[in-house]
Amino acid sequence: MLLIRHGQSEFNVVYSVTRVDPGIRDPRLTEDGRAQALAVARLIAEERPKRLVTSPYTRALETAEIIAGALDLPITVDARVGERAAFACDVGTPVSALRDRWLGLALDHLDDIWWPELEESEEALGRRSAAFRGHMAQAEDWRHVAVVTHWGFIRSLTGMNVPNCAVLRIDPTQPGLAPLTLSPPAATPTAPAAAQG
Predict the structure, then answer these.
(1) How far are the Cα atoms of 78, 172, 179 from residue 158, in angstroms, in the given order?
(2) Partners of 169 in beta bridges
(3) Could you tell me the CATH superfamily of domain 2-195?
(4) Among 47, 28, 128, which Cα is nearest to 84's?
(5) Tens of pLDDT along 150-193?
(6) How far is CA 111 from the centre of its chain?
(7) Sheet of 2-5, strands arranged across
């Protein structure tokens, strides 16, 4: 299974410089973030994914949309792979509004307010990521699934802090094994708050 952190968002640009939450709810990708997503599509093409799972946050949906468009992949939206709710960027967009923008995506399985309350505990995130990992371990096609997700979710699953559009390969059936990083820059074992989003 491939884990992909979404491309650079409007929130990431400000927060990485100021270390202050700029109050941008459910931010979109920047132009750099869009270019990163396209680069990821080229990178993972040789991995031959057959489907994408994505978080319902706009930055993840936009990343998934770019990758899916380049590789002709179906997209499944799963709130379990969303970010740990801790900043303004982690307040999502209601499903009623997401439907207007992503007409072709199945969203009926989500509650209108699908994101967790601020502030989601590390324990709650751990339970959510473990539940998703367990679900994927049971899926026959997990080797051919790419998941567009977030810094906190990836950190919870792997213990690694990764930059925007990093790609990690993990085996959900072997939770103790270290992931393999497919894209530079390399992930680091610590998780500074500046990487949020």
Answers:
(1) 19, 10, 7
(2) 2, 180
(3) Phosphoglycerate mutase-like (3.40.50.1240)
(4) 128
(5) 999 999 999 999 999 999 999 999 877 667 777 644 444 433 43
(6) 19
(7) 75-77, 51-54, 145-149, 2-5, 167-169, 180-181
What pTM did the predictor assign? 0.91
Parse the chain into domains and list their residue ranges: 2-195
In order, the DSSP letters of 52-116 are: EEE-SSHHHHHHHHHHHHHHT--EEE-GGGSPPS-SGGGS---HHHHHHH-TTS--TTS-SS-SP
Reading the block at residue 167, the tokens are 């790609």
Task: Measure the CA–CA gap between 144 and 166, rounded to whole angstroms.
Answer: 17
pLDDT tens per residue across span 44-100? 999 999 999 999 999 999 999 999 999 999 999 999 999 999 999 999 999 999 999
